[in-house]
User: What shape does this take?
Amino acid sequence: MAGKIRVGIVGATVTVGGSGWGARTHVPALHALPDYELKAVCTTREETALASQKAFGTDLAFHNFDTMLASPEVDLVSVVTRVPAHYDLVMRALHAGKAVYCEWPLGATVAEAEEMANLAATKGLYTAVGLQARSDPTLNYVRELIQQGYVGEVLSADFAYINRATIKRGAGRIFQHDKKNGANILTIGGGHAIDAVNFVLGDFAEVSARLATRVTEWINSDTGESVHVDSPDWVSVSGKLQSSAEVQFLVAAMPAMPEGRRTFEIYGREGMLSIAVGAGGAEKNPSVYHGPNQVFGSRGKEPLVAMPTPERFTLIPDTVPAGPPRNVAQAYTRLAQAMREGKPFSPSFADAVHAHKLVAALEKSSETGKSVSL
Assistant: This one.
């Protein structure tokens, strides 16, 4: 592909009500990357489309998704809407012959994810899914250290990611109360966690999970009404990798959390690695949980020492804003390289299907009270 990759984004607006993920991460990432041009923005109403066009500096604005898809000036469609809308938008983009970057979770169900992946494969289109751990510089460094034998044989690993729960939510996020909508601590946090473990250490052979909903009521901050919650806020998992290493991880959201707990520790026969997840910025502002990861290592009985991530793992310019946009920009950079060289890209929709099946296995294990083989 010659020239810049022209992106049309749907779901990123300057209006309030949602999480603002697309506007806060994808837009600044794309603006900072020389391989891309943020060409178009699409929203559901003309006034928000025009307002977002002005704010984001795009050439084109659409309030009809199919009209944007018909534009020859859009090469890649970025879908950053709420999860329930992913399936319809992605399928329409693929049918239009566009490459697609879709945020995680890819679909509300495994079946939806499989349909999207199958259609993309049939049409031979590039796809990317927002499992940003696979593009994180530090986790790529840790993965290399594991493969090079820094800790020797991996015996076990422990992953913990506990954040402050959001009890009051506006119209843009209150939909997450219903687990059928596919956007909750299990699918989002759990999906990211289990994919990060897979990326660094390899696939699971079996999992055993316990899911719970400890906070069963949220407040709609727009109306003041109480909403019943059945989405899990506690995801506790133990499992065994195909390498026979034992793994446990906990992903949860609790209301009284002055700071989050975010660690990933790997124990080997000859050493260990400890990753402080999103450490940069979190100690000053717990809501900023996407700071740069930091890794510490130890061989034998030596004390842990800081192991700065080599610069070669960082693929993006310094102009990308700190925090969440950086790993999003890393993913876009890797995607552009793959597209230009005609090589496969990961994480693709096929990788998303794998992650969805792992999440489904956690649900099955919790429902049956039994381990699930993979």
